[in-house]
Amino acid sequence: MNPPIEDSIVQIGQDRWLLGYAVVCEVVSEEPKDALKSWRDDDGKLYCLRTLPETDGTSTTPRQCGNLQNGLFHHAGTSAAVWNIGGMFIKVEAWRPEMQLESDTIRFVNRVSSLPTPNVIYSWVDTQWSRSFLILKTIKGRTLNQAWNTLSSDCHTQLANTVGRFCKALAISTSERLETADGKGIVEPFLTTRPANPEPLWKPQLEEVLRSRKLSSGKRLPEGLITTMLRPSMR
User: What DSSP assignment string belongs to 152-171?
Assistant: First the structure.
């Protein structure tokens, strides 16, 4: 991805972040009229999202001058990362047209079942940078992974039964077609006819890695060099 997924959110001030290509998150005293969404953290601070105006000086600020790590909570390879800002989790994932969004999946689960799901605050797709943004309300407590070894075997069994009930509840929601939760086609190579000379599955993954790498000087790999390195897979 270009820029890399971990560069999707940059802190450019004490209480100001750039989210993707054209959205800014900032702490304000009152909600502006052009706010896309707003919320308060546990300390009462008011955070808001708004589209970055073209005349805003921030639009010309070099992103490398900002803080890339402040708020970064989890980094999952080259296609996903999570930030914790203003008491919310902001998930950023690689996106392409017709791709099922996590926010759509959550709405589908809410529609067909009573399963507990994350509270979606706001979501959008950054088509300029080919990635989706999802803001979720945080929940206080420990994760199951953190608590598992402290729980009794009876608790383990109870949790397993609960997950089983959840799976069963989702399994009874069916469709006459093989489709995603929002009715789109499923992009699955094992379920479709393979082209006569398909490119290897590793090629887009390698290309993504190469485009995210930096030289010792801090610059990206030249486009010509990337093309040369990928050329054997095109023969």
Answer: -HHHHHHHHHHHHHHHHHHH
